[in-house]
Amino acid sequence: MLFPDYRPRRLRQSEGLRRLIRETVLTIDDLILPLFVIDGKGVKNPIPSMPGHFQLSVDNLIKTVKTAANAGIPAIMLFGIPDKKDPLATRAYAKDGIVQKTIKSLKNKVPEMVVITDVCLCQYTDHGHCGVVDGNVIDNDASLDLLARVALSHAKAGADMVAPSDMMDGRVAEIRQTLDENDLSRIPIMSYAAKYCSAYYGPFREAAHSAPQFGDRRTYQMDPANAVEAIREVSMDVEEGADIVMVKPALPYLDIIYRIREETDLPVAAYNVSGEYSMVKAAEKMGWIDGSKVMIETLTGIKRAGADMIITYFALEAAELINGSK
Ligand code: PBG
Ligand code: ZN
């Protein structure tokens, strides 16, 4: 395979040839659209750092979900912004909580859309942490029961899948057991298995009002410097009953996606997070990059690294581009 006998450019001469040898093809089947739901009617609050994304009331959210379904997107990831916060996140597992109500109308109006719910406490606690707080520490074991309650309330409301993002140790087992005891053994768990303590979550925290009110998330989310530890986190969640394992964020962690894909035979999800979206949108607005091309290159790269599915704020835009309707 040496020049001049071998010439790699031979197979790059035309789009037809390039299509024949293309190894990775991004499809609409790979995409999960994250959405933010808030109380009220007719609400569509723009999220300044995430152009094209909004805090939506249920009526408007349903419109967006119908558009997504028409574009062929198989699933959404739902985040709630509650009316009240308290130390024990009671609105996170209330029967009439924002997410629980939204799931019911969604499954009524757009039954074919797979509804995955983010399971965490941080939007619902007044201190903004993902678990229960005892003084200045996040109490792991005291958080497990509440997280399981959140997951159960989502599943009872009709969620198709629950996705715990809290990073407490042992939560997947607790959630699996609680679902099973309540006749919900059919509900899969997508575990945020290797979730890093990342500055790329900034725009999300503005959108979901979930920034910690003291300290940071370093005692529960992973150190960005660690890769081998991600394998341990993933194996733990697999043992505890996860059905899909997630790596988050995506772009600075493509090596982790690759390694996890090699380590497990479960489906691997990657979360292309808010800050990764905002950077592309900002550079596009400045006229510094071609936003659509960077979007497709980014998503293709995440898939090439080994992701079977990608949670991305680009989902609708990418689907419309792939469909040729934009
Ligand atoms: C909360 C949660 C976060 C994200 C998803 N669920 C933020 C955090 O951990 O502070 C980040 C999503 C994004 O940035 O797009 N548990
Ligand atoms: Zn959280």
Query: Are any ligands bound, and if so which?
Result: ligand PBG, zinc ion
Briefly, what CATH class?
A: Alpha Beta
Number of helices, where a helix is a run of at least 4 consecutive DSSP H or I residues: 11
CATH topology: TIM Barrel
Low-confidence stretches: none
In what range is the share of β-strand residues? 15-25%
Rg for CA atoms = 20 Å
Helices and strands: which structural class? alpha/beta
Instruction: Spell the H/E element sequence.
Output: HEEEHEHEEEHEHEHHEHEHHEH
**Anisotropy-based shape:** globular
Give the number of domains.
1
CATH superfamily: Aldolase class I
Straight-line distance between termini: 41 Å
What's the architecture, going by CATH? Alpha-Beta Barrel
Roughly what percent helix?
25-40%
Please describe what this structure looks like:
With 326 residues, the protein is of the alpha/beta class. It contains eleven helices and twelve strands. It has helices at 15-20, 58-70, 98-109, 140-157, 171-181, 202-208, 228-240, 254-263, 274-285, 291-305, 315-323; strands at 31-38, 44-46, 54-56, 75-81, 114-119, 132-134, 137-139, 161-164, 190-195, 244-248, 268-272, 309-312. The strands form two sheets. Strands 1, 2, 3, 4, 5, 8, 9, 10, 11 and 12 form a ten-stranded mixed beta sheet that branches. Strand 4 (75-81), helix 3 (98-109) and strand 5 (114-119) form a beta-alpha-beta unit. Helix 3 runs parallel beside helix 4 and helix 4 crosses helix 5. The mean pLDDT is 97. Bound molecules: ligand PBG and zinc ion. Ligand PBG is lined by residues 118, 120, 122, 130, 165-166, 201, 204-205, 210, 217, 273-274.
